[in-house]
Amino acid sequence: MVDISAIAARLDAAAQRAEAIPQITGETGELPLADAYAIQRAAIDHRLARGATLVGMKMGFTSEAKMAQMGLKDQIWGRLTSDMVVVNGGAIDRARFIHPRVEPEVAVRLKAPLAGEVTREEALAAVDAVAAALEIIDSRYENFRFALGDVVADNASSSAFVVGPWLAADTDVSDVAMEMRVDGEIAETGTSAAILGDPIRSLVAAARLAGVAGLTLQPGWTVMLGGATAAAAIGEARTVSLDAGHLGRVGFTIEGGAA
Ligand code: 0L1
Ligand code: MG
């Protein structure tokens, strides 16, 4: 039997202290997805008990390349909480993170509830605004290494996120060139089409996966639709910026040193 609450407490403490822990699967063997999502939920409950609120959902493994690398046929997802929000142009404290990486993404803000099997048109009808965004991922596991169950339990590595200026819901997000810079140097370039061929497909998948979990995506929530490129390590960098063409710019600075 997997001790859901004990593992959740361990992951929550690792995130709070910015201290890596060994993989759960090193101890339990394979971790079934249902148990992994139960651990994720229980770990997030610790944050909610401290006063954070749920503000959205993140999609992970949204590129064919990443899915193939993990031997997956579906995406994974995690929960976004209010303590993960970084304002555009704001600063993060490096000491909050273990070994952070950053990915260029597309985000949507919802104006209507969304859950279960929906069409592309139904998903789009629930969108209030779209934006370019950056996700900071920071696996709570040693050496940023994990099996599928580990990463799902660890909230799909999500750690913080920054959303650029919100744009009209009908702004085309399907194939937007993205150039991400770390300390002014190009770190990754790509296109939003790498997100399941079209980021709106990721929103359809988010609704489906939320439905499977008995959740409804809520009006006002942000959904981070997935990485357009590989993630770049932040290391001791001081600035990260994303130029996403007609989706605009988003960025943040990094203060302090590693924990
Ligand atoms: O957002 C992502 O696609 C990352 C999912 C978690 C896997 C990782 O940490 O690379
Ligand atoms: Mg991501």
UniProtKB/TrEMBL annotation:
<dbReference type="GO" id="GO:0047437">
    <property type="term" value="F:4-oxalocrotonate decarboxylase activity"/>
</dbReference>
<feature type="domain" description="Fumarylacetoacetase-like C-terminal">
    <location>
        <begin position="82"/>
        <end position="247"/>
    </location>
</feature>
<dbReference type="InterPro" id="IPR011234">
    <property type="entry name" value="Fumarylacetoacetase-like_C"/>
</dbReference>
<keyword id="KW-0456">Lyase</keyword>
<dbReference type="InterPro" id="IPR050772">
    <property type="entry name" value="Hydratase-Decarb/MhpD_sf"/>
</dbReference>
<dbReference type="InterPro" id="IPR036663">
    <property type="entry name" value="Fumarylacetoacetase_C_sf"/>
</dbReference>
<dbReference type="Pfam" id="PF01557">
    <property type="entry name" value="FAA_hydrolase"/>
</dbReference>
<dbReference type="GO" id="GO:0005737">
    <property type="term" value="C:cytoplasm"/>
</dbReference>
<protein>
    <submittedName>
        <fullName>4-oxalocrotonate decarboxylase</fullName>
        <ecNumber>4.1.1.77</ecNumber>
    </submittedName>
</protein>
<dbReference type="GO" id="GO:0008684">
    <property type="term" value="F:2-oxopent-4-enoate hydratase activity"/>
</dbReference>
